[in-house]
Amino acid sequence: xxxFPQTGARTSAPYSAAARLPSLRYIGPNWYATxxxxxxxxxxxxxxxxxxxxxxxxxxxxxxxxALLLAAVLAARAGHWxxxxxxxxxxxxxxxxxxxxxxxxxxxxxxxGSTMTVGRDVLGHRAAxxxxxxxxxxxxxxxxxxxxxxxxxxxxxxxxxxxxASPVWLLPVVAxxxxxxxxxxxxxxxxxxxxxxxxxxxxxxxxxxxxxATLMMLPLIFARLVHQGPLPLALTPTxxxxxxxxxxxxxxxxxxxxxxxxxIGAPYASALGxxxxxxxxxxxxxxxxxxxxxxxxxxxxxxxxxxxSMTWWGxxxxxxTCVTGAAxxxxxxxxxxxxxxxxxxxxxLVSAWAxxxxxxxxxxxxxxxxxxxxxxxxxxxxxx
Length: 384
Prior knowledge:
Shape: globular
Distance between the termini: 5 Å
Order of helices and strands: HHHHHHHHHHHH
Helix content: 55-70%
């Protein structure tokens, strides 16, 4: 069971590298979602505006697990590209698979950010900073490249049919928003003056890039739902992906407002603090509306027979961004309501992560998640 059935037949010789590594053939870019979903549990837990005994220690363990997962998935994906290049190229040219390349950027960024907020107590500040600089730089560069390359391929190569828009389309363009939200961790580490201001404004530029691209795609996604009906059962969890740019953008404006006073002039710094609330509150309201709609659709899908697939990892990272967004609003407004909202969303996040993680382990041990697809791939949707 995978997020998407794979394309292309094996053409390698019997004793080639592909023959020696058959299980890697079906390891697609969607596997980075396991890293994202795990890292956000640690990062969101550290951001909660309440003290829970033992939570920090638990988050530290989860951060270490996310780092190990990142190394494992990077190795598996390198093996995939090395041994199964035909399949890797087919993924890149497949309109339902290519958007998942945005997950690579977000996995790197999520682990880098949680290293600074959680792993710093283990590694020390200098080592954590070095790790975050490397992962943030690589993740941001990849995210910006993917945000251009995948829409370009959609236009010139993929040519998806009208009415086939999917929440998965958001994955390439939301990656720069993750950079915008995690960049503030590095602003105080830069020399005061031009360096800090440039970093701050670069994060706002990535915020705008991702936000406007998201606003172009959301009407297409909702129109597809209204005119074509609910998504296929296995793709229903991808509705949660819409929460990603909503929660992450709210997180970004809050984090950027926190570091603005030391990085930019007073008139702008105070305005950015006000913007964090004026933007974040309405967007969080819409996020809660979409969450209610997505949960309703998932309940319907479960009643209709939806079984586990890797799309269930869509329940994790997007919800985690809403946790950090609500925590930021609690910090900027002082309202207890946002504190409890962050806690409630974090409980939902941890529950979803535990279920997705356990089911993924079961699928790995049984071999189901590494097996070849059993059914032909639909034109516009990837199901188990």
